Amino acid sequence: MLSYRHGFHAGSHADVLKHAVCAFVARYLQQKDAPILFLDTHAGPGLYDLGSPEAEKTGEYREGIGRLMPHAADAPALLSDYLEMVRSLNGDGGLHTYPGSPWLIMALMREQDRAVFHELHPTDEASLSALARRRHRVHVDKSDGLRGLIAHMPPPERRALCLIDPSYEIKTDYALVAAAVARAWKKFPGGTYIWWYPVIDRARVRAMEVAMRAAGIRKTYRVELCMSPDTPERGMTGSGLFVLNPPFTFPDAATAALPWLADKLGAAGPLTAGWLLPE
Ligand SMILES: C[S@@+](CC[C@H](N)C(=O)[O-])C[C@H]1O[C@@H](n2cnc3c(N)ncnc32)[C@H](O)[C@@H]1O
Q1: Per-domain boundaries in the chain
Q2: Ligand 1 contact, 173 CB (< 6 A)
């Protein structure tokens, strides 16, 4: 159906959490020279104009990245690389452009790394292809990202950072995503997977947790940042990430960063940082 456009939500509190974690985990994995496959299952266009009608309509970036940039110098370790990348994209003091996950990944990649970006929306795929043109070892794939996730595991590099960032447009997406992650993990249990989810209906998040347990997935840390308490009414109150095989430094970094983030973003909902599934 593809009615979702991320341009309305770029730079929101959910993006901030997701992108900071991606950058932190990538930098950790890059401490070893061995090459990494970056796989982005739902990549979007890669770069967002914060002056666009979409961004202006919701103003979500003002409540997200807009609130953090003035405090970037004091940011905890989880956020420092990410905020520095946003600053470098905008120049000192400004905030007119926001990096999507593919832009961040391309900025993080080393000579030996490789990236595969899946994006189905024709307009976003065209924007992303233009952004990635002339980039070495970057492939934009206009096909389903969940199939791509399964197909690419295990990668020849034997090291992978996979971002799973669907828009969950229909209720059945939750089960489909959980099944795809489980299949990918079974094919490559040593990979690092960052799996984003919205908190709209807590029962759907719980169902994904049940699916992970049933699949035998281990070593999963969860970080969740909610702007307001769970509610039976419609609307997203927060978001979270399941991080499968996180760096050993991640729990401490996430625990330290969440209160800082909540304070700067004015979040008034639950904050969670903890192991969901043990080793
Ligand atoms: C939440 S946005 C991605 C944002 C991006 N990961 C970022 O952080 O900048 C989800 C994207 O997935 C795309 N999409 C939807 N279904 C897809 C599918 N089955 N495979 C690949 N992309 C899909 C949408 O067009 C949308 O651009």
Answers
A1: 6-277
A2: no
Can you tell me the distance from the alpha carbon of 250 to that of 206, in angstroms, rounded to the nearest whole number?
Answer: 23
Share of the chain above pLDDT 90, in %: 96
**Coil, helix or strand for 86?**
helix
SS3 51: coil
Q: Looking at ligand 1, which residue's alpha carbon is closest to its atom 12?
A: 42
44 lines ligand 1 (CB under 6 A): yes
> Strands 37-40 and 114-118: what pairing?
parallel
What the block records as the tokens of 64 is 């997200």
CA atoms within 13 A on the CB side of 64: 26
- What's phi and psi for 158, nearest 5 deg? 60, 20
pLDDT-derived band at 3 (thresholds 50, 70, 90) equals confident
| H/E run at residue 196 | strand 192-199
CB-CB contact of 137 with 39 (8 Å):
no
**Enzyme catalytic residues:** 165
The pTM (predicted TM-score) of the whole model is: 0.98
6-277 is classed in which CATH architecture?
3-Layer(aba) Sandwich (3.40)
